[in-house]
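[job 0412] stage=complex_fold ligand=alpha-D-psicofuranose status=START
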Amino acid sequence: MSILSSDNLAALEQQGIELPSWAFGNSGTRFKVFGTPGTPRDPWEKIADAAQVNKYTALAPAVALHIPWDLVDSFSDLRKHAEDLGVTLGTVNSNTFQDDDYKFGALTHEDAAIRQKAIDHHLACIDVMDATGSRDLKIWLAEGSNYPGQADLRGRQDRLQESLQQIYARLGDDQRLVLEYKFFEPAFYHTDVPDWGTSYAQVSSLGDKAMVCLDTGHHAPGTNIEFIVMQLLRLGKLGSFDFNSRFYADDDLIVGAADPFQLFRILFEVVRGGGLNNPDVAFMLDQCHNVEDKIPGQIRSVLNVQEMTARALIVDRDALAAAQKSGDVLAANAVFMDAFYTDVRPALAEWRESRGLAADPMAAYAESGYQQKIAAERVGGVQAGWGA
Ligand code: PSV
Ligand code: MN
Ligand code: MN
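[job 0412] stage=complex_fold status=DONE, emitting structure tokens
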């Protein structure tokens, strides 16, 4: 008998993880961007590559876009292209971090004309969402200051709220805004949306269609991220995840690579808090593959999320609750660790085969010849937008 119950398998069957279009482009650090043979030359090819990840895993049904990195003449054609390849277009990410006008802020800027330019960019992103059928507008702001006294911290919060209100007012009935936080970088003294509390305060005063986005890489070392996940789910304000791994800063490495136990703990709170398969909680990756091939990098990523979700699902919650109630610290910890140490990979491989998928998606992709084909066909792949 499988260690995964039929209820567990039914929950896993529903799992869908959005892939970032930018994961398929070349990226790097400020020191060097290494090109990878076969890198997509445009958004059409990025989506074709993302569809490969879904083909081998059935885990990645949507692709998130970043505007203007993914600007095309016709977003309805891009949507059709995606749908023809068996995926949909997901979250639309705005970008107010690569324009000289935004040196001292965008939605928080002192100058009303620059604020309006940034607001208009977000309204244009909502136009894109109308064409792509995307539900979520994801806003991450690179705004802040480097020196104490440089900026009026409070005035910036007020302006941020006013700007967000104008963006929020343009959302359709079925559309949402998710506000991502990050504790530092590119500003180093203060960031205007540094933490979940600020994001929560800003979105709560907007309304029900505004939620918090939690990027796992955007916390100080030692932060108890699963506690934040629990709290946001408890408050009904966790809109989405940007999954990735960090060792030092905002490393954007493969989710679950740096700390699989942390990913397990996060996913346990997701399962515990009703966030798994809850349509209000979008699972996304926000990663870059600087030195590894991008498609297998994304396959590895979604499999890591699936594996840790399966482990989180098999926690004996009744035994855990009993041990917690009776104050049996070590028994409670043992129940938790038993699930974490359970190797679910053979059971998942078996289940995959029963669904007509390859037992080992990494091997199946490697054997497919797709990587060699794109390396031969594509010359001059584009950069993801980062690391210039
Ligand atoms: C910022 O560090 C961030 O996490 C935001 O989500 C951006 O849109 C994304 O990275 C780009 O990779
Ligand atoms: Mn992010
Ligand atoms: Mn980031």
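The mean pLDDT is 97.
[job 0412] exit 0
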